[in-house]
Amino acid sequence: MTNFSRDERRKNWRGFTPFYLLNAVSLFAFTFAFFAFSAVGQERIGTITEPLITYHGVQNWTSQNNTVPVCWETAGYDREKKITQEAVAGTWQFWANVNFTGWGMCPTSGNAQHVRIRVSPQGDTDAGAGGSARMGTGALSKAGDNNPGVSLGFWAKAVEYVAVHEFGHVLGFGHEQDAPDNDGPARCNNGIDTSADPISITAYDRDSIMNYCNRDGNMTGHLTDTDIEGVQRVYGVRRQNVASINSCQSAQLKAMASLAGAWNDQNNTSVAVFPSDGTKFLFHANRSIRDGGWGDTVKWVSGDFDGNGLTDLGAAWNNGGHAVLTVRLAQPNKKFVVAHWLLDAGGWMDTSVYMAGDFNGDGKSDIAGAWNNGGMTSIAVYLSDGSKFIGSGQWSDRDGGWGDTVKWAAGDFDGDGKTDVGAAWNNNGLTTLTIRKSDGTKFTPIHWLDNAGRWFDASVFLAGDFNGDGKDDIAQMWDDIANNAIKVYISNGSAFQPARAWATRDGGIPPIVKWVPGDFNGDGKSDIAAVWENHGSNVLTVRASDGAKFGVAHWSENNGGWAPTSAWFAGKLD
Asked: Would you say the C-alpha torsion 77, 81, 84, 90 has a positive or negative sign?
């Protein structure tokens, strides 16, 4: 086996040392799809690109039970060591079944093998950052070898990036720019190893953590969706890379909101209400007990369908291939009253998305259903007359591409009193925010923010008036190195402003979270509730808005038993 060296240098960065690779071959396959957005450009949804490359002769850690023993040769650097360990654990280990163990000081004698990390000091005049790493189990060495598997140089702004990149090499992954399909407008010309012999059957990922030319500028430690796909293909799935979806969409009502949850009660539907007193949620009270069948495919929505000022619960469900719209009408301090408001709402499609809102501005909430019409998006609206839904009107007819990964949110984004429909979608690795603006009889699509930052499949998008100016905005919950972060896109009435960070790593991300927007403290600004499991019980956490940022607090703990399929909604319920 012949080794060759590669200089691990990045443009405008210094302080790198060589590491060793072998001839390259790709391990993975991919799929690629795009959907035309006929009215306002192209809406390319669900794009999947190159899931990393590896090299001939590299032995990955499956031969070591997916366990990577790590230690530090160099004393000191406690801050950087903590960042490095947390970055690796919060990326590769967070998503895949691979475990990095140890992280203490290396033994100074003996034959125990570790991935030994050596730190190269960098002074103020040499303020670069970088490193080198050997590939796969070839990164192992023992005390007497004087041959660390990873060498790191630290600069405060890039510690996470360097750590995640170099440990990508330790896992056996090569540089994405060496892929044979590194070509076209996204071609990376930085650091290509012309002596490598990669074999790839997949498209090129310009934004991979392993690509010198990613659009994050080699400054963040975030994995792309295809980085995650690649490491999971090799080491298995620890956590699915999908958004934690709440199966109920709440219409935005201008009143202090309580929480409620519909749950599977022995294959029947029960509903519990968790009243808000403005600072906490009180213990729940059952408002509906086994008053109809339960189905995990039911699409739940909430809104004031009868116009009495209270929030009702709507359900779209499959009745022999036809959609039925059923409501549970809220009564003050009483149980919900169940009624079928439309027995035949058209054909049922599992991928359809239902949203509630006052789409015609008459003071009563309606229901909109977005559906896949031959690869294009159509939206039917079911208007409420206060006692039933009046058939359906086609308010959007094939006016843009359809994608199952699109994140939908309904809100009055322009502040005209009529609910619009928003969509966040994957536009070649970046997020585009598109709204379909209501004029009371139809929707007109328009892109309100073309580049809303990197796309992540696991992100959740919610609508709400987070700054209290009368116009609904969009909030994005996203995984920031295994911690929750929130960006808010403020509406000015005709466009969304670029993202502002309203919460930065303010808590962990449980595997399932039910996110619910609502004004829980009654100050006129939308907050965000998170319902999650703690040892089989519900924890209700609120991120309260002050108009510029969110403050996080647990508003209730051990408040009822956890049910992973439950549907949570917010509104005025008394």
From this structure: negative
Take residue 457 and report the two structure tokens written for it: 């499949």
Find tokens 């970055």 and name the residue: 87
DSSP summary character for residue 109: S
Token pair for 213:
């030319």
What single-letter amino acid sits at 264? N
Judge whether 170 and 151 are in contact, CB under 8 Å: no
pLDDT tens per residue across span 396-424 = 999 999 999 999 999 999 999 999 999 99
Residue 455 tokens read as: 């796309």
Residue 157: in which H helix or E strand, if any?
none
Angle at 368 between CA 365 and CA 369, to 5 degrees: 155
**What's the chain's Rg over C-alpha atoms?**
26
Please give the backbone phi and psi of residue 33, each rounded to the nearest 5 degrees, phi first: -145, 150
Question: Would you say residue 190 has pLDDT above 60?
Answer: yes
Tokens at 183, concatenated = 């070509």
Give the pLDDT confidence of 287-328 residue by residue, as tens digits: 999 999 999 999 999 999 999 999 999 999 999 999 999 999
Nearest CA-CA partner of 376 in 406, 420, 345, 413: 406
How far CA 395 is from CA of 46, 360, 380, 410, 439, in Å, comes to 25, 11, 6, 14, 10
Question: What are the beta bridge partners of residue 324?
Answer: 317
Tokens of 385: 């007359």
CA distance 563 to 537: 9
Work out the number of other CB atoms within 10 angstroms of the CB of residue 391. Answer: 13
Amino acid, res. 487: K
Say how far apart CA 454 and CA 227 lie, in whole Å.
Answer: 14
Q: Which helix (H) or strand (E) holds 255?
A: none
For residues 448 and 439, is the Cβ–Cβ distance under 8 A? no
Q: How far apart are CA 92 and CA 390, in angstroms?
A: 51
> Could you give the 3-state DSSP secondary structure of residue 163?
helix
Q: Which residue has the tokens 């960098």?
A: 122
Distance CA 20, CA 135 (A): 7
User: pLDDT of 13-32, one tens digit each?
Assistant: 222 222 222 233 222 222 22
User: If you count DSSP H runs as helices and E runs as strands, how many of each does the chain have, helices first?
Assistant: 4, 37
**Distance between CA atoms of 370 and 281, rounded to whole angstroms?**
33
